Amino acid sequence: MASAAPGDLANGRFRVTVGRVFVDWPRKIKRIPRPPDERCPHAIERLISAKEIAARIEALAGEIEAEFAGTDKLVVVGLLRGSFVFIADLVRELRLNVEVDFIETSSYGDATHSSREVRILKDLHGDIAGRDVLVVEDIVDTGHTLAHVLTLLRARKPRKLRTIALLDKPSRREAPIRADWIGFEIPDVFVVGYGIDYAQRNRNLPYIGKVRFADT
Q1: Catalytic residues
Q2: Residue 86 and residue 77: Cα distance in Å, rounded?
């Protein structure tokens, strides 16, 4: 059975006794982000339509083709999981020989803000040494994820390494980085849809939506 010491609560900390084990936590960390369910009512407001996304991808594909003209094969690297819809639509617009590979990273968990700690959960399947590589990101927020991935990939000596992001939040940037191509610049709002999720929900929306929580 767990119990808390009253004296500790006054100091902004609480001590929990579980059996014979004492765990001392700062009070400030006891708030845990909740998934968007009935306990956390929310609404999704359309921010970028499916037609706008399709038109922008078509334009970006033309610029990418010009940049990689003459390539034997372009290795398109998607950052899972949020980029999977974007990368699928993008490669179908490219009139180039392409090979698709993926890296899976984690920096959000179930929270609505980046944790700034980037973990590689899945690495590339193939070798990129001496090859042309395009990294596809769903959204650049603080920039820590993209910066970490690019440092990793540059060490593998690709011939050319470029980046594209569907969405960019420059107001939240902490790392000095910007993708070579940007689909849309957005304000500091939490978004879902078109592959982007909140706690594994709303990835299947065909548009980009802004999440509005009832308590905000």
Answers
A1: 141
A2: 11
